[in-house]
Design brief:
The complex is a heterodimer of chains A (527) and B (232).
Chain A lengths: L3 H11 L9 E6 L3 H10 L7 E5 L2 E5 L1 H5 L8 H7 L4 E4 L2 H16 L6 E4 L2 E5 L1 H6 L3 H16 L4 E6 L1 H10 L8 H6 L9 H9 L5 H5 L3 H8 L1 H10 L18 E9 L2 H21 L2 E12 L4 E7 L6 H18 L6 E13 L10 H20 L5 E5 L5 H4 E5 L24 E2 L6 E5 L20 E3 L5 E15 L7 E10 L4 E7 L2 E7 L2
Parallel strand pairs in A: 2-4
Antiparallel strand pairs in A: 1-6, 1-7, 2-3, 5-6, 8-11, 9-10, 9-11, 12-13, 14-20, 15-16, 15-20, 16-17, 17-18, 18-19, 19-20
Helix pairs in contact in A: 2-5, 5-7, 12-13, 14-15
Chain B lengths: L1 H10 L18 E2 L3 H4 L7 E2 L4 E4 L6 H14 L4 E4 L6 H7 L6 E4 L6 H11 L2 E4 L8 H14 L2 E4 L10 E13 L4 E14 L7 E7 L20
Parallel strand pairs in B: 3-8, 4-5, 4-6, 6-7
Antiparallel strand pairs in B: 1-2, 8-9, 9-10
Classes of the chains: A alpha+beta (527), B alpha/beta (232).
């Protein structure tokens, strides 16, 4: 892949030597695309006044909003003053791109080599469709109709030499004759170059149209204003030589196996899983990819479709894929009591990433050790099941226990709670033993033997002096600190209202005692 | 002349005091341990293939001692596995310096304890094995020890059950917490006394004191807060 910058440099300096390519370009332009995208994905009505805002300024607005006087660049308050019923939505390039994908696919059904210039605009070489449909206008009509039928979206098409002129032609809804591009551009304002600083400068120099700019001496524009201005001048002169960077359709990575005899036995399923896993792995490595999620789909003889996604930290070997598929099939075959056997099995990799970062170390050392450990754990998982071997990931949370999430070895390492400010968090050092909830209940009494409790504001009712363990032995408290009150999720099901104390007992043990719903318990021990 | 002899005696060292490199032992046969624990081991570190048991002694603190034993090796890139400790605080392991992405936890090996530990010894540099209920029979213990020797890993039997046949057994003999007052302060650091007994070169009991999680350099004996007095 040539760096486009290098290519453009070559275009500027050696344009005479570059072979002239056919530059006829067709551009499909969907006006006000962010509005349409929001309407399609968020279910808004196109006839409402809608404005898309970025950094408190209107970026695009719908026709209804324009009729009320809303313009590009207005501040939110001004826009709402002009049109009080204005629906304001945030600028979201990802949403625009997502909504544009069906349009691109509809165009791709008719023509090859579609390039998405930005969400709402795509381009392709005009020569192919023009020859197929007879002439350019007929091709344009077909494509506009295809988009309207497939996606229900209105589009305009422009044809000219080069993508820049073709986009301007699409905005004007024109087909520019093969040699008329320079003349078409001649009268257009310099602001169409979409380079605000350069436009401003040219305006102050008295250069108002693309034609006037194109007629400036080339070498002096380059010397005075730099490379970008020189490129803009070539665009203004209608000499847009940049080849279209053609979008390559994503490779199909799914693998599927159909069985003549429905599978009902686990060992047969395991055998099928292995073959399929090897095919998927081969295909992935062929593209130099690794996947972080593996979707397993099984279709049963009576048409039921079972689907489950497995997460993984990225080192999916063929064995790992096979194991996960086998575990899943075992689960389906033994637990769900399927009415009929499995007739088709499909593996789809999701969350693809390029494998570069996952290769073993240069000298093999770190990689070899990692391999050894992975193999050993794999066998352990074979003995105890996937949930038997765990690894810990640090996340957020207030107590010491929830801050480390235990995930099965080989799964994606994602903590339960995100990192972030957690006011009221217990200070380090952390206890080495986290006792399970509903664990060891104790009673805590003050020096007169009254049980220690808390009031409505989670303040202690007395100083803890003695702790009675559940084996009836009583230990004196030698030191304590706290309370650390926690009142979490009072609005939901995980509501927790408790206080924690750090306590040092007379036998030398330090522990965290928690009081919740009137019951003291040993939360964790600093063993 | 007398001064000269003093200087000379300072220069002369016993063979056991020589660092492994000087003594000509391959560095690759040793896993590092944190400096205060070094004097507990005749080789100054965890010798690959050895069995080092960690047991609670007369004071609490054995879990922290076990984590402290793994920390230096884990930081140097070793992989560690901990089998049979379901209530281990992973956050404490992290604070102790263990790399969590190179630590595997097998909380409940259950009846497959022997097989699981044997499998782990194939792939991990240090395997902590805490038997639940009963200690494996002498034959199984010997098999596991020889497996560790064969693969160059370190087996660390852990827990209150005595594991006969360990090269070295570490016990906690004293634990003093600092930083916690009566209703104020917080647990900051602990002074842990460890005694090592073993066979062969390690038969003489050795004693070491370590501060967990760190030495009390920043532990100012918390100044008593000035009493508040009523202002009229």
């Amino acid at each position: 892949m040539t760096d486009p910058w290098v290519w453009e440099l070559a275009q500027v300096f050696y344009c005479g030597r570059v072979a002239r390519v056919d530059r006829r370009t067709m551009v499909v332009w969907c006006p006000d695309w962010p509005i349409i995208a929001a309407a399609l994905l968020d279910g808004l009505s196109m006839s409402d006044p809608i404005a898309v805002l970025h950094a408190n300024r209107v970026v695009v607005c719908s026709a209804a909003a324009r009729a009320e006087g809303v313009r590009r660049g207005l501040r939110k308050r001004d826009a709402q003053a002009r049109c009080p019923e204005l629906v304001v939505i945030g600028h979201d390039p990802a949403r625009d791109a997502r909504a544009f994908e069906p349009v691109v696919m509809a165009v791709e059904q008719l023509v090859a080599g579609v390039v998405v210039l930005r969400p709402g605009v795509c381009a392709f070489a005009a020569r192919g469709p023009a020859r197929f449909y007879g002439h350019e206008e007929a091709a344009a009509e077909h494509i506009v109709e295809q988009i309207a039928v497939e996606c229900g979206v209105e589009a305009q098409i422009g044809i000219a030499d080069g993508a820049f002129a073709a986009l301007l032609a699409a905005r004007a809804g024109k087909v520019v004759a093969p040699s008329g591009t320079a003349a078409f551009l001649d009268g257009l304002p310099v602001s169409t170059l979409d380079r605000p600083e350069l436009t401003d400068l040219l305006w102050r120099l008295g250069i108002r149209t693309l034609g006037a700019y194109a007629r400036l001496p080339r070498s002096e524009v380059m010397a005075r204003f730099g490379l970008d201005a020189a490129l803009a001048q070539r665009l203004a002169a209608g000499e847009d030589d940049r080849p279209l960077a053609v979008r390559r359709p994503p490779p199909d990575l799914e693998v599927e196996e159909r069985f003549d005899e429905p599978i009902e036995r686990v060992d047969v399923a395991a055998f099928a899983a292995r073959a399929l896993a090897e095919r998927l792995h081969e295909r992935l490595t062929g593209y130099g990819l690794a996947c972080t999620r593996l979707a397993i789909v099984a279709v049963t003889a009576d048409g039921q479709e079972l689907y489950r996604v497995w997460r993984h930290d990225g080192v999916l070997t063929a064995t790992a894929i096979a194991d996960r598929t086998r575990w899943q099939l075992e689960g389906w075959l033994t637990n769900r009591r399927l009415a009929s056997g499995i007739i088709a099995l499909r593996l789809a990799p999701e969350g693809l990433l390029s494998q570069v970062g996952l290769q073993p170390g240069l000298w093999g050392e770190a990689g070899a050790q990692r391999e050894r450990a992975h193999r050993a754990l794999h066998r352990t998982q074979g003995i105890l099941g996937p949930e038997g071997s765990l690894t810990a990931v640090l996340g957020g949370g207030r107590a010491h226990g929830p801050r480390a999430t235990l995930v099965p070895w080989g799964d994606e390492r994602v903590p339960n709670l995100p990192e972030g400010p957690w006011p009221g968090r217990m200070p380090p050092p952390s206890p080495a033993r986290i006792l399970p909830r509903e664990s060891v209940s104790v009673s805590v009494v003050d020096d007169r033997g009254r049980p220690v409790g808390v009031d409505a504001r989670l303040r202690l009712s007395g100083e803890p002096a003695r702790v009675v363990l559940n084996d009836r032995s009583t230990l004196d408290v030698e030191g304590w600190a706290g309370p650390w009150p926690v009142e979490e999720h009072w609005w939901g099901e995980r509501a927790a209202r408790l206080v924690r104390l750090q306590t040092l007992l007379s036998d030398g043990r330090a522990m965290i005692l928690a009081l919740s719903e009137g019951e003291w318990a040993i939360d964790a021990e600093f063993d | 002349m007398a001064e000269g002899r003093v200087e000379l005696s300072a220069l002369v060292k016993r063979a056991s005091e020589l660092s492994p490199q000087v003594a000509g032992r391959g560095d690759d046969r040793m896993l590092p341990v944190t400096p205060p624990l070094r004097e507990l081991f005749p080789d100054g570190g965890l010798r690959r293939g050895s069995t080092v048991a960690v047991m609670p002694g007369s004071s609490p603190g054995s879990t922290s001692l076990m984590l402290a034993l793994l920390a230096a090796a884990s930081q140097a890139g070793s992989w560690v596995a901990i089998a049979g400790v379901p209530d281990l605080g992973a956050l404490a392991a992290h604070e102790m310096g263990i790399a969590l992405d190179r630590m595997a936890l097998i909380p409940r090996p259950g009846v497959s304890f022997d097989r699981v530990v044997a499998t782990l010894l194939d792939g991990f540099d240090i395997v902590v094995a805490a038997p639940t209920g009963v200690v494996p029979a002498a034959g199984v213990r010997a098999q596991l020890a020889s497996r560790a020797r064969q693969h160059g890993s370190v087996l660390v039997p852990f827990g209150p059950l005595a594991w006969d046949g360990a090269d070295i057994t570490l016990r906690t003999e004293g634990s003093v917490w600092h930083g916690l007052g009566w209703g104020r302060g917080r647990l900051r650091t602990r002074e842990l006394t460890v005694v090592a007994r073993g066979k062969g070169a390690a038969s003489r009991p050795r004693r070491a004191t370590l501060w967990l999680p760190h030495a009390p350099d920043d532990l100012a004996t918390a100044p008593a807060r000035p009493k508040l007095s009523l202002v009229s």
